[in-house]
Automatic annotation (TrEMBL):
<dbReference type="GO" id="GO:0004519">
    <property type="term" value="F:endonuclease activity"/>
</dbReference>
<dbReference type="InterPro" id="IPR011335">
    <property type="entry name" value="Restrct_endonuc-II-like"/>
</dbReference>
<dbReference type="Pfam" id="PF05685">
    <property type="entry name" value="Uma2"/>
</dbReference>
<protein>
    <submittedName>
        <fullName>Uma2 family endonuclease</fullName>
    </submittedName>
</protein>
<keyword id="KW-0540">Nuclease</keyword>
<dbReference type="InterPro" id="IPR008538">
    <property type="entry name" value="Uma2"/>
</dbReference>
<keyword id="KW-0378">Hydrolase</keyword>
<feature type="domain" description="Putative restriction endonuclease">
    <location>
        <begin position="10"/>
        <end position="154"/>
    </location>
</feature>
<dbReference type="InterPro" id="IPR012296">
    <property type="entry name" value="Nuclease_put_TT1808"/>
</dbReference>
<keyword id="KW-0255">Endonuclease</keyword>
Amino acid sequence: MTTRIPMSYSDYLELPDDPPNEYQAGCAVVMDRPTPYHGRVLRRLMRVVEDQLPDGLEVLSDVAWKPDDQEWGPDLIVLEPQPQDVVKFTGTPRLLAEVLSSDRARDLVEKLAEYAAAGAPCYWVVAPRDETLTAHELRDGSYRVVARLGRHEPTASIAVGDLQLRIDTRELVS
């Protein structure tokens, strides 16, 4: 479940980190903690992506991304290594991914529009219940589906900028 609490960004910064929070449209967005299965799928996705990244890129989770007056905590983010004193990443990530949980509309509708507006070039959505991964690429300010993997077509090589990442959904949701 997701709860929105109107407040200023300075008040948001004073909130404790537990439960996980994001900041959008003048509201703290407080979310339930993910399930163990969500965590397992995310860990597997991170491993698959990390194993294919060149030097100079890393895959992380639970990192604050603040490109403007919004702040998100995507499940997965691929970016260049940041200095130790960087608290919130403000650049453009190579890839963002969300693993769906109880608030599917948040990841499938709201974040799709928000991440596109913020300029994230690639956004993946993993739906463990459906055993799917949908890859979106930003084109002319909105996302277009460039790959949809599932039970009938579980593997593909997906472009993430100049990278090609080979994904097999069976490795993620088994």
